[in-house]
Design a protein that fits this description.
By secondary structure, this protein is α/β, with parallel strands linked by helices. It folds into three domains: about 240 residues, Rossmann fold; about 35 residues, no CATH class; about 60 residues, no CATH class. Helix content is about 30%, strand content about 15%. It has ten helices and eleven strands. The strands form two sheets. The chain has a nine-stranded mixed β-sheet with strand order 1-2-11-10-3-4-6-5-9. Strands 7-8 form a two-stranded antiparallel ribbon. Helix 1 packs parallel to helix 2 and helix 6 packs across helix 7. The radius of gyration is 24 Å and the shape is globular. The structure holds S-adenosylmethionine. The site of S-adenosylmethionine (SAM) has 21 residues, from strand 11.
Length: about 375
């Protein structure tokens, strides 16, 4: 059932398994994950996930053009009741490659710097795991040579690279064995991005949200940021190519494709999400003013550790955190020990020279 159409695309309100049309250049999607904390739209259990997804994946293979790509954004999950991880997304990847004959063109990692520290029980209460802030983004293809160019997604050069382009570099063999030739001095218009993508998921002032508010529609609870599909739509398709999102949600993929002049089809099974998606294409709404940072800094994890002493820190829990700390004990952990956050600024300043010493010692660059 076609719900609405735009200049370049169509939104279909239907189970995508029953709606698959061929000649697609890119299937880009974020399926429901096998989450422990279920979303409104329902999530498949981890142990049934691979079999459930296989039906869709066979169809993706069929409808993709020979040079096309399948890109899946998928988050990890936890084993119920214990602080260990499910392997479901890795099993999915292995099924796609081993059983359905997709090639893994490359795996990406989407780091959401704004991700809240969850699951609270393991991360905030027992303090035995760190926050899970990275999704896997698997780029698969039907041939080892899918249509692609990283020239479409260059990023600004770093200051040191600009300096190198300007002032040159003495060609030499690095300690790592890499041969740095004069070619490194060439200005290629920008730096090639890595497969770690840093995009905060913090949409707060968009056309979509304003539209939902004004029409009393509940916004989709698991939207990805537009920058995510944008990267792959730019890198893997040309203007006029066809993009399909079979688990479209609020239709971010459609909005990105509309702006980039790709033909697109978004399929979504929940009518309210499709209603909300209309807000992405209502031009009466002023454009999005979200302010984005260009860079995210990933701190060296040692910044607050400094030195070999663990004085002032509690011993590691002998039972691995199995016994839940009482409320008082949780509080106690922060006051009895030296709270690493307390004098963060002074600590970071104080250790800079030592970090440099450490680097010299091991001759890393
Ligand atoms: C993780 S959400 C996608 C969110 C989307 N990327 C966005 O940014 O708004 C997955 C969506 O798939 C939808 N869905 C689940 N099974 C479906 C099916 N068989 N056909 C179409 N949509 C389905 C769910 O209703 C949900 O909205």
């Amino acid at each position: 059932m076609q719900e609405f159409a735009t200049k370049y695309g169509t939104v279909i309100l239907q189970d995508s398994l029953e709606y698959m049309r061929d000649s697609i250049d890119l299937v880009f999607t974020s399926p429901p994950f096998a989450l422990l904390r279920k979303k409104d739209y329902g999530n498949v259990e981890a142990d049934e996930y691979v079999a459930w997804f296989e039906n869709f994946a066979r169809e993706f293979y069929r409808i993709l053009k020979p040079m096309g790509s399948l890109v899946i954004d998928i988050g990890g999950s936890w084993i119920p009741g214990q602080p260990t991880r499910s392997l479901y997304h890795f099993e999915l990847l292995i099924m796609l490659v081993r059983k359905l004959q997709f090639y893994l063109a490359q795996e990406f990692y989407w780091w959401n710097p704004a991700k809240l520290p969850t699951p609270a029980e393991w991360v905030n209460v027992r303090r035995i795991r760190v926050k899970d802030a990275v999704n896997c983004v698997f780029w698969l293809s039907k041939t080892p040579w899918p249509k692609a160019s990283n020239r479409r997604v260059l990023t600004p050069y770093s200051d040191s690279m600009l300096d190198l382009i300007e002032n040159g570099y003495e060609a030499k063999l690095r300690p790592s064995g890499h041969d740095i030739s004069e070619k490194f001095q060439r200005d290629n218009g920008g730096a090639i991005p890595p497969n770690l993508i840093a995009i905060p998921n913090t949409e707060s002032n968009s056309n979509y949200l304003r539209y939902c508010k004004e029409h009393d529609i509940k916004p989709h609870p698991a939207r990805f940021p537009a920058r995510l599909p944008e990267l792959f739509v730019r890198m893997l398709t040309d203007i006029g190519d066809s993009v399909f999102d079979p688990f479209a949600g609020s239709c971010v993929t459609g909005e990105v494709c509309e702006l980039l002049k790709r033909q697109w089809i978004c399929c979504e099974i929940v009518p309210e999400y499709v209603e909300g998606a209309k807000g992405r294409f209502v031009m009466a709404y002023p454009s999005n003013n979200n302010k984005e940072a260009n860079y995210y800094k990933i701190l060296n994890p040692a910044v607050l550790w400094n030195g070999s002493s663990t004085e002032g820190y509690d011993d590691l829990p002998a039972d691995g955190g199995k016994q839940r700390p009482t409320f008082e004990e949780q509080d106690h952990t922060l006051t009895k020990s030296e709270n690493p956050q307390k004098s963060k600024v002074e600590k970071v300043q104080a250790i800079q020279p030592r970090l440099l010493d450490h680097r010299d010692q091991y001759n890393t660059e």
